[in-house]
Structures are given as C-alpha cells and as structure tokens.
Amino acid sequence: MTANENIFWGPLSPCGGGGPCLSDLLEMQAGMDAEAWRRVSDTAQVVASYLACHPAVEAVRYPGLTGDASYHEASCTLRGGFGPFVDVLLASGAWMRYDARRAAGDARDEVLRLERVLAR
Questions:
Q1: What is the per-residue pLDDT for 104?
Q2: CB 41 within 8 A of CB 81
Q3: Could you tell me the CA-to-CA distances from 100 to 2, 27, 46, 49, 54 in Å, in that order?
Q4: Is residue 58 a contact partner of residue 51, using CB atoms and an 8 Å limit?
Q5: pTM higher than 0.85 for the full model?
Q6: Which residue, 13, 24, 52, 100, has most beta carbons within 10 Å?
Q7: b/e burial code for range 33-66 (CB count within 10 A of at least 16 → b)
Q8: At what angle do helices 107-118 and 34-52 cross, to 10 degrees?
Q9: Residue ranges per domain, the chain?
Q10: What pLDDT, in 10s, does the model give residues 105-119?
Q11: Topology at the third CATH level for domain 3-118
Q12: Contact present, 96 and 87 (Cβ < 8 Å)
C-alpha cells in the first residue's frame, strides 16, 4: 500500500491482522493514565461493534468483543477497557488497524469518519 492509498483509508492503516497482542496492550496500559486508557478503550469498543456489523467488513479482531478468541483472557487481564486497537479484515481481503489514540473526536465522530471511508 502506497502513502496515497493510506490517505484513502483515513483512520485505518495496514496491519498483519489477527488482533492486538495482550502483552502489548498490558504494556501500553501501564504507560497510560486510567482516564486516557478508558477513553481510548471506549472509543475502540464502539468502533469495533460498528465494524463487526458493516457489510464491507469480513472480520473484526478486538479483545472487547465477546466473540473474539482473546476475549476471555483479556477480560481477566486488562482493567478499565480493552485498549485502542481494532483489527479489521475488509471485504477486499486487506487487514487494517484502527487506533483510537488517533481519534479525531468522540466515538460517534469516529464511526461517521469510518462510514465515509468504507463507503468509497
């Protein structure tokens, strides 16, 4: 994916897929204050739920979704939320990552932003 294509995907960036690593999330959580962690986790939770229902999305990996393979371990490990990363498999076959730390607004703004990008 070129830099110009990355602009097209706005809040999404290419990734390997498979979901965020819990050890990475624990390390990230330790480096953030509780309020910031909750804010990015809340935004990511809303975005993950939205993307899981979107017709342009084949799969979503987010430890805060009850159907995610890492949900049980994450719910026993992480406190105050499941972190900012949501991995998304688009219908095109590309894995992309949403990072709530880069949110341009609240969760509603992010969903609207993603809707514009995915509608293209």
A1: 85
A2: yes
A3: 22, 16, 10, 13, 18
A4: no
A5: yes
A6: 100
A7: eeeebebbbbbbbbbbbbbbebeebeebbbbbbe
A8: 40
A9: 3-118
A10: 899 999 999 999 898
A11: Aspartate Aminotransferase, domain 1 (3.90.1150)
A12: yes
Tokens of 23: 């050890």
* Amino acid code (one letter) for 79: R
Q: For tokens 């804010």, what's the residue?
A: 39
- State whether residue 9 is helix, strand or coil: coil
SS (H, E, C) 47-112: HHHHHHCCCCEEEEECCCCCCCCCHHHHHHHCCCCCCCEEEEEECCCCEEEEEHHHCCCCHHHHHH
pLDDT tens sequence across 72-86? 999 999 999 999 999
Give the type of residue at 82: F
Q: How many other β-carbons are positioned within 10 Å of the β-carbon of residue 72?
A: 11
Q: Largest Cα–Cα distance in the chain?
A: 40
Tokens standing for 89? 């498999």
